[in-house]
């Protein structure tokens, strides 16, 4: 029997989001066929489609399948992760959304078709990765959480719905923000020590190295080191904004003035003026008060990744 990286699964649930940014009409059936032909399934495969927000989580909670394949973007993967966190069930995340940053952390630059081929040929293995627990939200995160710039980009991108498609909405929103960066009085503490305190444009905590697919906010992050990475960027204007914006795509911004980077088990972000933070996790904007606490959940999620992925 061929297996998915030496592992077989009793059964499989394929959850496809038909509204995800880059999904095609036949994506879900092609992925289901690939898993069925991998030889890694001992029992049945069930294919279901989501009908709206929250449905992917409900479907994963209502079906005990050992392997859950999520076809969609970061939002769909995050919903399934809420259910699979801390269990022995395995998540396989296919990049079929707009940003697909979580899938990028697992599969690199591979397309949905290329990952489907890996599944068909059993060229995958399981991997236990860390998650973030977000105390005030009573949620977990796989990709990461942020306040300021990234969250504001996601909030502003809604204005381009129906005008631009997919990731172009994020780029348009980001371009609009660069001339007026967030300027929030914010304190960030890592394991009880203050990392930064003052007017802040961005706080990113992860999780995944990339956000909005192309931006490497946390270039040193490792998904299974039992630690969270955090980077803060103080309030920027003019040329300083341009320098940071030009270097984030390659993760070369860390040595620029106003940028901090650290690692730890717990990160606390506080608005020191008492206003609510503008926050998101896994690419979805969330309502949170003036405080956000992220703590690491080591090895809390089993995922599929590339069989020959180099081990750091
Ligand atoms: N049938 C549906 N119709 C409309 N929206 C849906 C449906 N099923 C799920 N959704 C919602 O679609 C939204 C977007 O999903 P998702 O994040 O997976 O894709 P994306 O936004 O294209 O990708 P990314 O988050 O990677 O940029 C989520 O809020 C999800 O709850």
UniProtKB/TrEMBL annotation:
This is Diacylglycerol kinase (ATP). It comes from the Bacteria. One of its GO terms (molecular function) is ATP-dependent diacylglycerol kinase activity. PANTHER family: LIPID KINASE YEGS, SPHINGOSINE KINASE. Residues 7-137 form the DAGKc domain. Its EC number is 2.7.1.107. Keywords: ATP-binding, Kinase, Lipid biosynthesis, Lipid metabolism, Nucleotide-binding, Phospholipid biosynthesis, Phospholipid metabolism, Transferase. Belongs to the diacylglycerol/lipid kinase family. It comes from Nocardioides marmoribigeumensis. Signal peptide: none annotated.
